[in-house]
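Dear colleagues,

I hope this message finds you well. In preparation for our joint manuscript, I am sending the Arf-GAP with dual PH domain-containing protein 1-like (Ignelater luminosus) sequence together with its predicted structure, so that both groups work from identical material. I would be grateful if you could confirm receipt.
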Amino acid sequence: MADRNEKVLLELLKLPGNNVCADCGSRNPEWASYNLGIFLCPRCAGVHRGMGVHISKVKHLKLDRWEDSQVERMKEVGNINAKLKYEERVPPCYRRPKENDPQVLIEQWIRAKYQREEFCYPERQGYVSGYMVGFLMKRGKEDSRYHPRKFILSEAEDTLKYFVRENKEPKAILRLSELNVVFAPEKIDYPTSLQLTFLKDGTTRHIYLYHEDPEVITNWYMAIRCAKLHRLQVAYPSASEEDLVGYLTEDFAKEGWLWKTGPRTTDGFKKRWFTLDNRKLMYHDEPLDAHPKGEIFIGHALDGYSVRIGVVAGVKDQGFSFTLHTPDRIFNLSAATESDRDQWLQVLEKVIDRPLTPQDSSISVRLVRKRANTNSMSIFSPR
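The corresponding structure tokens are as follows:
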């Protein structure tokens, strides 16, 4: 009997939709929730176990014993039917996680689907209204301590404000249209943390935040995305929803330590933390600096941008060196390993080969102008 049930389950895995995890899309799921009727990867199965058996009852497809009734339930539902129910009303601004996304994002996606059933009952989606207020722990600009700060998100005003004291003027007012937000658990060392990145006076500013409650920090992330999308839909009514979603938030393509020289061939290599944010390649003294020491806009290959292995004549090769060529300067860079160098080359080449969007051009203009003109310009302003 057990062998027969196992064979049936393995046959069900071959059906469309069942051959990937119902929650993150990773291939070859090995687990299942037999009351929900879905196939899961090991990581998502762990989240399902954490919700409790009153919500999801998890078994391994091969290692656990299956009852006939449980196999029948898997036949009745399956991943595609479950998605039709539990993902019926996912807002377009909600980021659907993939297999390599941060744990907090995957966990809250699963809990939103099955525990809170937010996508069955839209009234439970507290992040789509365009307004949110609450306290988050913010890292000090000049020190490493985190302090509680009140934040107010307003889609109507296109702002995210934070306050040192509740009854005083805001310490800073950030434009939503100029704001990127990423999950940053590896860098900030809190599993429930965010990094805000935005342009101010022609240069980039980083703000680091966390909240103890993973649902709260995820709701802030989604609220920013939703507010940005709604404003874009008003500004660009003829644009497709799919295209606009691409402008909401974007993970950093790559981060890590590199060594770079100064502008002269005689300058030695210095260790810097690099962050590639879309087309901005920023370098810092430390990963949690509030401002980068420098920013390099990465344009298109036809405009004179390229990357090559090795260094220019007169510069000592560090072993895993490469050069970034821009119209204004050649940057000599070096990685710690050949693998890391190749990864940097790959992500930079991908950016250089990609055509510029109007938003990219606007950022380029602001960075170029930053020493001579600090007038603010929305990244999403029509040009």
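For the figure legend, we might mention the following. Residues 214-235 form the longest helix (22 residues). Confidence is low (pLDDT under 50) at residues 369-383.

With kind regards,
E.M.
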